[in-house]
Amino acid sequence: MTATIVRSRLEREIGDLHHVHDTSIVTTCYLDVDGGHRPRRADYLQAFKVLAQSARESAEVEEPVVRTALDGTVAMLGRWLEEQFERSRTRGLVMLACSRDSWFRAIELPVRIEDQIVFGHGPHLLQLELLLARAPRFGVALVDHEKMRLFEYHLGELFEHPAQFEGPAPHRDRQRAWNVSSSPSGTGDAAARWAPAGTHVDRREVALAERHLARCAAALASHLDAHPIDHLVLGGPTPERERLEGDLPDRYRSRVVGRVGVRVGAPIDEIQTAVAAIALEVEKRADDAMLSDLATASGEGVAILGLRPVLAALSEGRVKMLLISTELQSRPGALCTSCRALSVPEAICAFCGAPTTPVDDIVEAAVERATHGGSCRFVRGEYLDVAAGGAAAIVRD
Ligand SMILES: [Zn+2]
Description:
By secondary structure, the chain is α+β, with helices and mostly antiparallel strands. It has helices at about 1-20, 40-60, 65-85, 125-135, 190-195, 205-225, 240-245, 250-255, 270-300, 305-315, 360-375; strands spanning about 25-30, 90-100, 105-110, 115-120, 135-145, 145-155, 155-165, 230-235, 255-260, 305, 320-325, 335, 340-345, 355-360, 375-380, 390-395. Zinc ion (ZN) binds near residues 336, 338, 339, 349 and 354.
């Protein structure tokens, strides 16, 4: 619920930025300030210097007025980064500036982004929008013998769903967790088997706890039906957590990506830290999988390199995953008025021979097209071979 608020805060921010269009030059700088990746302050300051240098080099071909504007804004961003920025929990930083009217915006993101600097007549929001669309949602359920709490984790923030699930609380006075086995009980004597030697166990209490966990699993499943997630994290004392996992329907059990040992009553910061560690692993696994997919696809001949052939494959609806280098700048292109094929600037469509209409930013159009039938992501320049010319695609066989 609260997640929607955060999402819309970012979305609102992006919406506002879309209206920033004027004749002056806007510089958009994406900087990876992730502490895991760039532990020292000097590391991201150095990364910014590299970006600034590459911006200056690419500006050399532009008109003098663009060069001057760019020099001014890059200096301003550098100063702000050095004197004002405090990293804290920020992992990705987007800075937007226009030197002429000293307009400046900084967006601090709880997720990692790829270094990129772009200048043009308006903010360059493609990476930010894609990130928003792609950021996985994690459902989090903490359960013990008497209670269940539900959370949602998205874009680095954890929010609690207000509904709480209270069980019959048969063991309120007990210090340790309820001793329920993860294996389903086949016989009525299960209660006696679970009990540590010498402990008196009330079977009625065992049955109550079992029923409580079965009810929690059902409540969790219907909650997730109403609040779709990509991944699920379970927590609480091991026996109850395992029992809950066992009681979940397959469609949600298969989404469990991690288990955390935090108490159900733990403060939200503690839960957030534990879930963030799992989200980081999931993110890393997804990155590794993407790179290995690209390598495999290249080996099998189902990878396409270069903007022109990638646009052709997109137009044929063959692209499974589009990879865009952060070094690929916006550029004009063309859209066929008849078959909607995308291409580099061309008067006549190569597919059907119909006339085309110009497109301001073919990279943006390609990303939009790719996210319909497949997926799309930004990758650091060094991941894409020079031969790829800033764009690659994994296509369907
Ligand atoms: Zn056409």
